[in-house]
């Protein structure tokens, strides 16, 4: 490249596909995040079923077989908790990674709108998380039907419902973390969201008075096979929608207004 | 098409109580290397940040490549490359990957320019190393490479030689002149006066948030005080002879001789004036051992201007 071309200055259409790909690359190339996500979403399934199998082999009178619906359900409940840590890490990194490295400024000077720069963070993070969630769901589903069970094995519909529910649960955590990560610096954001998720939410759930406000209660209500009725299905859906979109809107608003 | 790459009128930017830019006007012609000089805190970086839309002005008008910004910022910046302060990268990515990210955001043909840009800034060999392992000078060069992805008509470079060794500065100087030779416009913000004098065709000096002087390097230097340094064993006698001469504005002894500052409205050249002073001294029997007419360097002019305005340098 040497000679200056004479094409007049004009904006190019937003290259969404390339921008999302770049966003995904930034997340994938963070080795720590890559391995932590693997350990927190996929590894628990493998370790869980190995432990269940060993327990049954050692003490069959007290530990049932590893397969079947009951263990699938407990595996997903556990995954929704521990996988949430990974979703929060990915969300905060996607929300604040460019800012933390000082690269946001370098992207703004391209003339691309701040909203577009924010807009690709969500699909970029989802694309990172999706293979892990699908991998975990696949492993759990296969284990639940191939390992010995008490005779109650999940059907395909239930397997898909559980995979979807896990994806939704992690999506809410990711969206919250993405929004907060776009508002605050990385460490503060991750501390705040983890504290909310794992300290304040259980305390508030314990009071039983504000379940309608809590995404954990909403997810519990729509979990496959749930008997939880502290909130109605409609309220649960609205709560999940609110917890997904409000942080994203706040993050977009702040990103659009901030100095770079 | 406007002949100006950058047009700024009445630009004001305040940070709380502090006014960083006060009613600033600036015109940068296309196809030139333009120096933007000023002491630290004068407002150089603030202007570049405003032009690039990194922060908002309180008032004023700006045009880049003939397009009003921030109104048509996307279109204007599509052909602008920039380095603002120290260029920043994701350290865990390679140089090439960092450029891929910028190219993805720019879109268009930017992706296809990556190899050429890396080659041009001399980083082809290290392109696949992580930026974490780069020296500051390499990061500066990678920053220029990233700016080239736009095939820029206009390059805004804020203190781009920071961290470069002498050889790197020399290469950089050649690179900027080459950019200008290709028809690009370069705005070089710097406090390194010698560098600006060597690289740029024209300059603006900013101080206290205002452009206090603007013009070609030659005009600027020519508008400064002209002096004649006279060496003589009888400095007191020489001073007495020259005081009151129509060509003389002031005289001071500076340790190496007497420094005569010529009157600003003098129609003679400095050399002609030096000859006239020499004749006057010898007519009074004063031996002249040295006679040196001097023109102000850019640095002299910069110091004169900013000191006159109470600058910090």
Features:
heterodimer; A: 260 residues; mainly alpha; B: 313 residues; alpha/beta; Alpha-Beta Plaits; 2 domains; six-stranded mixed beta sheet; four-stranded antiparallel beta sheet; 11 helices
SSE order of chain B: EEEHEEHEHHHEHEHEEHEHEEHEH
Proportion of residues in β-strands of chain A: under 5%
Q: Note the total helix count of chain A.
A: 10
**What topology, given as strand order, has the largest sheet of chain B?**
6-7-8-3-9-10
Order of H and E elements of chain A: HHHHHHHHHH
Terminal residue distance of chain A: 29 Å
> Span from first to last CA of chain B?
39 Å
**Class of secondary structure makeup of chain B:** alpha/beta
Broad structural category of chain A = mainly alpha
Question: What global shape of chain A is seen?
Answer: globular
Explain what you see.
The complex is a heterodimer of chains A (260) and B (313). With 260 residues, chain A is mostly helical. The relative contact order of chain A is 0.13. In chain A, α2 (31-58) packs antiparallel against α3, α3 (69-101) packs parallel to α7 and α6 runs antiparallel to α7. Chain A is 75% helix and 0% strand. Chain A has helices at 16-28, 31-58, 69-101, 103-108, 114-119, 121-146, 156-183, 186-207, 215-222, 233-257. Chain B has 2 domains: 4-221, P-loop containing nucleotide triphosphate hydrolases (Rossmann fold), CATH 3.40.50.300; 225-294, YebC, transcriptional regulation domain (Alpha-Beta Plaits, 2-Layer Sandwich). Chain B has 11 helices and 14 strands. Chain B has helices spanning 44-51, 73-77, 95-106, 114-120, 136-148, 166-181, 193-199, 217-222, 235-242, 270-283, 298-308, and strands spanning 4-15, 18-29, 33-37, 59-64, 67-69, 80-83, 154-158, 185-190, 202-207, 210-216, 227-231, 248-253, 258-262, 290-294. In chain B, β12 and β13 form a beta hairpin. The longest helix of chain B is centred in the middle third of the chain and has 16 residues, at 166-181. Chain B is elongated and about 75 Å long. The model of chain B has no long low-confidence stretch (mean pLDDT 89).
């Amino acid at each position: 490249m040497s000679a200056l071309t004479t094409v007049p200055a004009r904006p190019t259409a937003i290259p969404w596909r390339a921008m999302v790909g770049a966003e995904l690359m930034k997340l994938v190339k963070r080795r720590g995040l890559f391995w932590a996500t693997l350990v927190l979403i996929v590894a628990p399934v493998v370790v869980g079923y190995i432990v269940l199998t060993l327990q049954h082999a050692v003490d069959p009178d007290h530990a049932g077989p590893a397969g079947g619906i009951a263990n699938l359900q407990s595996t997903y409940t556990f995954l929704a908790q521990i996988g949430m840590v990974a979703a929060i890490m990915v969300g905060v990194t996607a929300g604040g990674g460019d800012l933390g490295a000082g690269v946001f400024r370098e992207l703004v000077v391209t003339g691309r709108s701040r909203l577009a720069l924010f807009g690709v963070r969500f699909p970029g993070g989802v694309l990172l998380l999706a293979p892990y969630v699908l991998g975990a769901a696949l492993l759990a589903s296969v284990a639940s039907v191939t390992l010995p069970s008490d005779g109650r094995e999940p059907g395909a519909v239930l397997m898909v419902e559980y995979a979807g529910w896990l994806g939704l649960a992690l999506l809410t955590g990711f969206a919250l973390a993405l929004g907060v990560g776009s508002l605050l610096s990385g460490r503060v954001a991750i501390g705040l969201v983890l504290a909310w998720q794992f300290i304040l939410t259980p305390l508030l759930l314990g009071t039983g008075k504000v379940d309608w406000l809590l995404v954990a209660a909403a997810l519990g209500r729509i979990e496959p096979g749930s008997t939880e009725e502290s909130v109605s299905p409609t309220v649960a859906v609205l709560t999940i929608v609110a917890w997904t979109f409000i942080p994203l809107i706040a993050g977009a608003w702040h990103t659009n207004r901030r100095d770079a | 098409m406007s002949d100006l790459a950058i047009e700024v009128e009445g630009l004001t930017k305040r940070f709380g109580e502090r006014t960083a830019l006060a009613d600033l006007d600036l015109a940068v012609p296309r196809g030139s290397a333009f120096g933007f000089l000023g002491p630290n805190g004068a407002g150089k970086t603030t202007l570049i940040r405003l032009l690039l839309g990194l922060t908002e002005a309180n008032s004023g008008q700006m045009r880049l490549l003939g397009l009003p910004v921030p109104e048509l910022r996307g279109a204007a910046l599509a052909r602008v490359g920039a380095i603002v302060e120290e260029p920043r990268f994701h350290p865990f990515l390679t140089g090439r990957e960092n450029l891929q990210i910028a190219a993805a955001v720019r879109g268009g043909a930017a992706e296809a320019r990556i190899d050429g840009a890396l080659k041009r800034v001399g980083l082809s060999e290290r392109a696949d190393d992580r930026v974490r392992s780069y020296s500051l000078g390499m990061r500066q060069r990678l920053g220029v490479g990233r700016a080239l992805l736009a095939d820029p008509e206009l390059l805004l470079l804020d203190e781009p030689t920071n961290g470069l060794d002498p050889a790197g500065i020399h290469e950089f100087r050649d690179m900027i002149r080459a950019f200008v030779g290709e028809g690009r416009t370069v705005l070089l913000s710097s406090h390194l006066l010698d560098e600006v004098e060597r690289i740029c065709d024209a300059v603006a000096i900013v101080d206290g948030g205002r452009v206090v002087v603007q013009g070609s390097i030659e005009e600027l230097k020519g508008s400064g005080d002209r002096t004649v340094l006279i060496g003589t064993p009888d400095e007191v006698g020489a001073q007495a002879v020259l005081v009151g001469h129509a060509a003389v504005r002031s005289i001071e002894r500076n340790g190496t001789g007497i420094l005569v500052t010529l009157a600003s409205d003098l129609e003679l050249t400095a050399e002609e004036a030096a000859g006239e002073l020499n004749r006057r001294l010898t007519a009074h029997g004063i031996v002249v051992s040295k006679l040196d007419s001097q023109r102000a360097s850019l640095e002299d002019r910069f110091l004169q201007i900013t000191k006159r305005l109470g600058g910090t340098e």
